Amino acid sequence: MKELVEQVEALYAEFAKDASAQLENGNKAAGTRARKTSLEIEKAMKAFRKASLDASKQ
User: Fold this and answer.
1) DSSP of 27-42
2) Of all helices (H) and strands (E), which one includes residue 14?
3) What is the DSSP letter of 1?
4) Which domain holds residue 45?
5) What is the pTM of this model?
6) How confident is the model at residue 58 (pLDDT cuts 50, 70, 90)?
7) Residue 25 to residues 21, 30, 31, 37, 49: CA-CA distances in angstroms?
8) Cα angle 32, 19, 50; round to 5
9) pLDDT tens, 1-37?
10) Using an 8 Å Cβ cutoff, are 36 and 29 in contact?
11) Domain total for the chain?
């Protein structure tokens, strides 16, 4: 589960960097990367939720 948390943190840092580049500089490519990363974050969060539920049942 620790690996999932680290993965989410890394993905969020990447997302924040690209999202701010789009907002501040109007960088369209950064917006595309931010949207792609948001989908990866969603998948990682679902995996975390599943692992968290499994851990709480033990």
Assistant:
1) -HHHHHHHHHHHHHHH
2) helix 2-25
3) -
4) 2-57
5) 0.87
6) confident
7) 5, 9, 10, 19, 35
8) 85
9) 899 999 999 999 999 999 999 999 999 999 999 999 9
10) no
11) 1
